[in-house]
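Thread title: Can someone regenerate the structure for this chain?

I was given the following input by a collaborator and told the matching structure tokens would be attached. They weren't. Posting the sequence so someone can regenerate them.
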Amino acid sequence: MKQPGILYVVATPIGNLGDITMRAIETLKQVDAIAAEDTRHSSGLLSHFGISKKLIAVHEHNEQQSAQLLLQRIQQGEQIALITDAGTPGISDPGAVVVNVLISHGVKVVPIPGPSAVVAALSAAGIAENGFMFVGFLPASGAQRRKKLESLQSLETTLVFYEAPHRIVECMHDLAGVLGGERRVTIARELTKTFETIHRCYLHEAHAWLTGDANQQRGEFVLVVEALPPQEAVEVDASAERVLRLLLDAVPLKQAAKLAAEITGAKKNALYDLALKIKDV
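Best answer:
Regenerated them for you:
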């Protein structure tokens, strides 16, 4: 009976082909097959390094089916490499589903680390106070995007986003509007590629910078937004608290805090925190 094989999760360049590691090349040469997000795109990468292997398509529309196919091959003793179009598989890219399915069946998964757009952008930003949270792509819908940002606005940690070129301007507008224009942002565009740009500014300045040069709206983006500064406790006076308590009896907590802020002029965040305490009592 054959010994079960291995899945290698292999990071590939995000742009500059010189960033691939020697271990990645050796792994891709030794495996029986390579699972790739876009087989046509990956063919060019593999050809550049003189690698000829069977390619298996694994993309967002077939991950479950592909996972079962890869599982069968690995259980028969094959060694498979999983790659994505650029960077590390499973990081806002297809691959995580496959890895999870194989792990659940006892398959050995070996990471072959290398290029990562997230880490590259953070290393050049210099603003990762209190660690960082990788959010990935925000929702495409403006309303859903703002709702997601509202859930992040009180976090005191650096936030990292991916964004596509056709949404970068409206995304930046919402980042400033929801998170506050006085936070610094690093806009990392086309990392490691010919037209790589790393621009640092405040969120309230970013929209004008992007719209001032259409070329800066091209390519793939990583956005690194600095953490919310530690907030001093804000006291809620007795009259505002009374209004809040009355509203909590009639409407949901979040709406009560918002309405109380509009009625009394008190800080919405302070009222929201107080409302949480009242509900816990």
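The chain has a mean pLDDT of 92.
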